[in-house]
Amino acid sequence: MKLSEKNKDFFEMVFQVVQLIPPGRVTSYGAIARYLGSPQSSRMVGWAMHASHQVPGIPAHRVVNRIGLLTGRIHFDPPEMMEKRLQQEGISVKNDAVVDFKKIFWDPNVELEIK
DNA sequence: GTCTTGACGTTTA
DNA sequence: CTAAACGCCAAGA
Predict the structure, then answer these.
(1) Quick check: is A36 in a domain?
(2) What is the extent of the structural domain holding A98?
(3) Domain contains A112
(4) Strand B near-CB residues (< 7 Å), A 17-56
(5) How many Å apart are CA A93 and CA A106, to the nearest integer?
């Protein structure tokens, strides 16, 4: 086993889940972290998202914190792109927060029917 | 090499 | 109810 591959394992897992998020839906870092088997390592998901900047096809704008707040929008090239992109998919954003977040919340553990 | 910060979340006071 | 601390792991300084 190569050390390089081992290091990417967690990040790639996050990327895969994020790409699986259907349009008009959002998920939280904690949900992904829990899906990976580390419910308390939600911060790592955020780091993975940061790394996603170098990987095209990663809709990081669909990933928000547990309250639906666009905490990571500042990290986007134009910070406005995140909420703009969400609205483009039919998601309403108010005050940097997703409207009806609970309704459009996409949980990989549920949608993917794990166990 | 150590220390601090960080796209979070849960638990405890 | 709100406020603060802890846990998790990685990367930057």
Answers:
(1) yes
(2) 10-102
(3) no
(4) 28-31, 33, 39-40, 42-47, 49-50, 52-53
(5) 16
β A97-98/A93-94 pair status: antiparallel
Domain count for chain A, please give it: 1
**Is residue A28 one of the residues assigned to a domain?**
yes
Residue A37 has a pLDDT of 81
pLDDT at A8: 58
Which nucleotide minimizes the distance between its C1' and the CA of A40? C8
Q: Is the CB of A74 under 7 A from strand B?
A: yes
CATH of the domain at A58: 1.10.10.10
Output the six-digit token pair for A9: 């394992």
